[in-house]
C-alpha cells in the first residue's frame, strides 16, 4: 500500500510539472522579429520583460490565450492580459504609437473581461501608423518574466493568429 502511494505521488508530481508549461499563441499575422531587434530601446533591452515582436500584415490583435483583460491603455495602442497560470502579457501595437492619441485604434473588449484564445481584442490601422512615420511592429512581452525559468520563442520567420509563438516554463 505504501509503495502504491509513492507511485501516485510520483506521477502526480510529473503531471503538475507538465501543467507548469504554458504556450502563448500568436495574436497577429505577420513576420516574426526578435524583441532585441525592435527600434524601441525599452523593449529591445527587455527592461519590461522578455518576449517577441511581430511586424503585422493586417490590423488586428487577438487573445494569445484564454484569460482576462487586466488593463487597456487609454489610447487603445496597448493591452495587458493574464491567464490562469499567471502569465502576464503586454501587447503593445506600434512604436511611439501613443503619439496618435488613439487615432486608428478600436478596442473591442473591456478591462476585467474574460477572453478566449483567438478572440479579436483590438483593430488598428497600419496605414495610419505608417502615414504618421510610426513603426507598426507589435511587441508581445511577458511582464512577469521572473516567474518563469524558461521563455522560448518559436524558430519560424512568420506567424499567423493562433499559431504557437512562445513557450514558458514556470519557475519551480
From TrEMBL:
KW Kinase (keyword) present: yes
Domain PTS EIIA type-1: residue ranges: 40-144
A molecular function (GO) term: kinase activity
Tree of life domain: Bacteria
A Pfam cross-reference name: PTS_EIIA_1
InterPro entries for the chain: Dup_hybrid_motif, PTS_EIIA_1_perm, PTS_EIIA_component
PROSITE patterns reported in the protein's UniProt record: PTS_EIIA_TYPE_1
Localization (cell): Cell membrane; Cytoplasm
Gene Ontology biological process: phosphoenolpyruvate-dependent sugar phosphotransferase system
Keyword annotations: Kinase, Phosphotransferase system, Sugar transport, Transferase, Transport
Topology term for the membrane: Multi-pass membrane protein
GO annotations of cellular component type: cytoplasm; plasma membrane
NCBIfam families hit by this protein: PTBA (TIGR00830)
Protein name: PTS EIIA type-1 domain-containing protein
